[in-house]
UniProtKB/TrEMBL annotation:
It comes from Nocardia panacis. The keyword Transmembrane applies. Keywords: Membrane, Transmembrane, Transmembrane helix. InterPro entries: AB_hydrolase_fold (IPR029058), Esterase-like (IPR000801), Mycobacterial_A85_antigen (IPR050583). One of its GO terms (molecular function) is acyltransferase activity, transferring groups other than amino-acyl groups. The chain crosses the membrane at residues 20-41, 53-73, 85-103. This is Esterase family protein.
Length: 433
């Protein structure tokens, strides 16, 4: 609202030439900016949910405000120039706010500020402080930033994080705890599950009920930078798959004493990370036996198939087959002891998405099913993958919950699936509350 008011003041009445010539030009510039943004999002396949119309209005306002500031600078008085200059960042801020409301990336202003300033995560401590905590009574787990060597992949990744539950600190040496690899969405940082997903209260509550026991959580970097969409495959954008399968498990096992048994390893992913979760599991059943695919796609994608082969694999069609889950499952043959959960979403209404989660229980595995209401297309992908998995011996189920493609949905899906994952990787179920 402030941006629109500032823009109207910046436009003003001025001269007849300004009103008949330059104002229409500014409107045209705004419309072109909105159309270009819409085309880019659609061409790149960046979103599962349709963007709210207000987003394109804000993009148009930003382009229009910039045009007004540039084209109307000479004819404006000093105070109108000041308003013109202010209208641009206001419109840009409005665009960012609507974009954030759409994807739920930053749930609070504090989370956004912490990410902007690279502030510490909740319960974060340094690796050097872990030795001093050994054998002490640690009531809540700790998160440590780590620089995982990339000798197995040469993948240029950012700082990653490892959550260690209270049970890890008990005794003279670390117990052989299970591990869960946590992967975020297409635009991501390794800390997104903690900052945007805000899952640590869920994990802490589980650990408190389980006498301090919980899986080691590894918040990995699957992209190398915020906007590098690797889809967790090897290709021109980096050998992300090698990093996640060679570097990470070896480091967590050696540095933190985690179990190396694939039965004690799981992958949980959201959006692009959901696609990664099933892809990593079916391509590397010798490493992972459990996955949770939260609103993932049918397979690694960066546009249509032709665009994906060009963008992700440098034109090598054989690489598509090597990382396409349906192809991999068909070629692999029967799997043993592999189980997965698909948590998909259906908006309550195409224009008014909401959130209504349904809990997951271990007994539901293998049952399958969905709500049969309006969806964005992800449910169809889950059904195809689950059908193919069942035919190859993978025990899987689909849970469909109502909501938008946001971090809030991902957090709710994590909360409902985490007890099942913990049981799958070998931890005893906590007593009922």
């Amino acid at each position: 609202m402030l941006a629109l008011v500032a823009l109207l003041v910046a436009v003003g009445w001025r001269t007849r030439r300004w009103r008949l010539l330059w104002v229409p030009v500014c409107v045209l510039v705004g419309g072109v900016a909105a159309l270009a943004a819409w085309f880019y999002v659609d061409d790149q396949g960046l979103a599962s949910d349709p963007a709210p119309p207000l987003l394109w209005v804000c993009v148009a306002a930003t382009g229009g405000a910039l045009a007004v500031a540039v084209l109307g600078w000479r004819s404006a008085r000093w105070w109108r120039r000041g308003v013109s200059a202010v209208a641009v960042p206001l419109a840009l801020l409005g665009t960012g706010i609507v974009l954030n409301q759409w994807v739920g990336y930053y749930p609070t202003a504090q989370a956004a500020w912490n990410a902007l300033t690279a502030g510490p995560l909740p319960q974060q401590t340094d690796l050097s402080a872990l030795a001093g905590l050994r054998g002490t009574e640690v009531k809540v787990g700790r998160i440590v930033p780590v620089r995982i060597p990339d000798a197995g992949s040469h993948f240029p990744h950012r700082t990653e994080y490892v959550y260690l539950p209270p049970a890890w600190f008990a005794g003279a040496t670390p117990p052989r705890l299970p591990s869960v690899m946590m992967i975020g969405g297409e635009f991501n940082t390794p800390a997104d599950w903690v900052r945007s997903g805000q899952i640590m209260p869920i994990v802490d509550k589980y650990a408190a009920a389980a006498n301090g026991q919980a899986p080691i959580l590894v918040f990995v970097d699957s992209s190398g930078s915020f906007n590098n969409d690797t889809e967790c495959v090897n290709g021109p954008r980096g050998d992300a798959a090698d990093h996640l399968t060679r570097d990470v498990p070896a480091y967590v096992t050696s540095r933190f004493g985690a179990s190396s048994d694939p039965a004690n390893w799981a992958v949980i992913g959201w959006s692009m990370g959901g696609t990664c979760a099933i892809d990593l599991t079916v391509t590397h059943p010798e490493l992972f036996h459990t996955f949770v695919d939260i609103a993932g796609d049918l397979g690694p994608a960066s546009g249509d198939k032709e665009q994906t082969i060009r963008r992700l694999y440098g034109g090598d069609a054989a690489q598509w087959d090597a990382f396409d889950p349906l192809t991999v499952i068909a070629r692999h043959g029967p799997y043993t002891e592999i189980a997965g959960l698909f948590d998909d979403l259906t908006p309550l209404h195409p224009q008014r998405p909401g959130l209504n989660t349904r809990p997951v229980d271990e007994g539901a595995v293998g049952m399958g099913g969905h709500d049969g209401v309006y969806d964005t297309g992800e449910v169809g992908a889950a059904e195809k993958l689950c059908d193919a998995g069942r035919a190859a011996g993978i025990d899987c189920t689909i849970h469909t919950t109502k909501g938008g493609h946001t971090w809030q949905f991902a957090s709710a899906a994590f909360a409902s699936s985490f007890p099942w994952v913990a049981a799958r990787v070998g931890l005893p179920a906590p007593p009922p509350a």
